[in-house]
Design brief:
Blueprint: H1 3-7, E1 13-17, E2 28-29, E3 35-40, E4 43-48, E5 54-58, E6 64-69, E7 75-80, E8 87-94, E9 99-108, E10 111-116, E11 122-127, E12 133-138, E13 143-149, E14 158-163, E15 170-175, E16 178-185, E17 190-195, E18 205-210, E19 216-221, E20 226-230, E21 235-240, E22 250-255, E23 261-265, E24 269-277, E25 283-293, E26 298-304, E27 309-314, E28 319-323, E29 328-333, E30 342-344, E31 353-357, E32 359-366, E33 371-388, E34 395-399, E35 404-407, E36 414-418, E37 426-431, E38 437-442, E39 447-452, E40 457-463, E41 470-475, E42 485-490, E43 494-499, E44 504-510, E45 515-520, E46 526-531, E47 535-540, E48 546-551, E49 558-563, E50 568-573, E51 577-582, E52 588-593, E53 599-604, E54 610-615, E55 620-624
Amino acid sequence: MCESAMDMPRLELLATIGFNGKISSGLKVHPDKQHLVYSVGNTVVIEDISTHQQDFLQGHTNDVACLAISTSGKYIASGQVTYMGFKADIIVWNYETRDIHCKLSLHKVKVEALSFSPNDLYLASLGGQDDGSVVIWNIANKEAICGSPAQVTSAGITFCVAFAKTSDYDFITAGDNTLRVWSLDLPNRKIRPIDVNMGQLKRIVKCVEVGDDDEFLYCGTTTGDILGINIRTRLFQYLGPEKNKFSQGVESIALLKSGEILVGAGDGTVQKICKCKKNKKDTTFKRDGLSQTLHGGVTSIALRGQGHQFYAGTKKCDIYRFNLTEFKHDLMTTCHSSPINDVAFLCGGPSDLFVTCSKEDIRVWETTANKERLRINVPNMTCNGITIMADGKSIISGWDDGKIRAFGPETGKLLYKIEDAHNKGVTAIATTSDCKKIISGGGEGQVRVWEAKKDSAKLLQAMKEHTAQVNWIILKKCFRECDQECVSASADGTCIIWNLNKFVRNQIIFANTLFHCVCYDTEQIQIITSGTDRKIGYWDTLDGSQVRELEGSQSGAIHGMDITPCKHFVTGGDDKLVKVWTYDEGEVTHVGIGHCGNITKVKVCPHQRYIVSVSADGAILRWKFPFFHDQGVM
């Protein structure tokens, strides 16, 4: 991240809609029983369970890869992933002040897992595949005590680490054909491992839990069974279920005070298992009758209190709340699990709702509540573009199967669809303010104008000048010439200004770039463009000449742009920064740092209260627009 961006005034992050469900044990319940802790991109989110108020811990420069909370709840530790050849940071946060307690750096590329000792004295960190070491840190002194390779050279990757529940000097690591119990020799600054005797059994362990009395260790495996290990003797004792194993492996486990184990499986199953006697000598695990199947593999199970209530996080980035007694669940938090391609508000309407689109679905969100109000599913298809008709009666969407689909915004019912609108997918979509026309752009480069009716649409004209994919279409909103002109930006390096009455080209703009976005200025006499060359260009709409050019980004293309009536505009792209610019001066006033995926679109709400940015990792971030009071809007 460039130093100039770090020195700029920061945008205030108001809320996130997202949850990184792909990391193991990435969802935690704080010991105060009132807050959930999870990550979105490079941000650690602390969310109040009752009020849903969010606090943000920001300090990482890339995706958060693991989380841990100390037994007392005083500290939160988070580790990140970084680029090959660089060290990945561990940040220990003070929970009360929400400040950084210390930053620890030793591991290369990725921090795989973290665990606090029971009395908050030490932190164990495990490096990823490119590092392969386990390190013990002194929390008070903020320094490393010692480290060692996590596994023997013949073993595979180590995936998890866990401290004992009663001792600050014993911990466990487990992974691919490796399971070790370690002892910390503090005077000699050494850690010494003893490998667990597994006999002929070979397993890949993905999650571990230590019993409250430190007698047994329980391991979830990719085979779909649970291993029981005697920690004192370092011997494998039993496994189960033997026949009815969990499909797609055991991704997460949690121990209940009753001795039962909650299991989250790769196929979305959440179920209790309990110990039972196999015969007079042997013990095994058997499934309890209560079971639920969630959407996506269950990567996290977090107990609240004694476990009367618990939370499950899935790979599809959903968080579910369970009642243990009835073993019933409800969806608490949801978000996109694949790249978000577009975001839209009702133009000129209220700012309390917005719409996003991604692979297989369109979602309508409540802006301030950060909740999903409606989900529209179209299986096996990807929605590339979305807009809302000015009367608010339909959501118009363009899909990769070449169809344009119109949905009801309240029911999600399909109102009509245009078959074969474009033969290489619909890549851009826009509508006129009188709700009578739809303008679409396709992967083949055509811009088509459709006459929209209540339950159907027909083709008026196809305009064929672009030779590559159309990425953006925007209409002119000038009072006298409203909806009579539009601009299309294409990957062929041209932007074309179209006359929508005669369906001919008014002007064309050439540049040595693949255009990704275009906007009219507030007076509708200039347009601003950007794309893969990282430049922001100002162009005159009358003669197509370039007025000025700005350096929009120091790294990567710009994918999203939106302009406000107060002569400010917002950009976002591959540099993962949301930037607010002054239009006349061409200077950056504020920078928003929070995304870890490439930003795909940014949008300022109609009342200029918020900026909503969406990214390729499925995250939605809502920022406070810094010049809201300049609008005279309250």
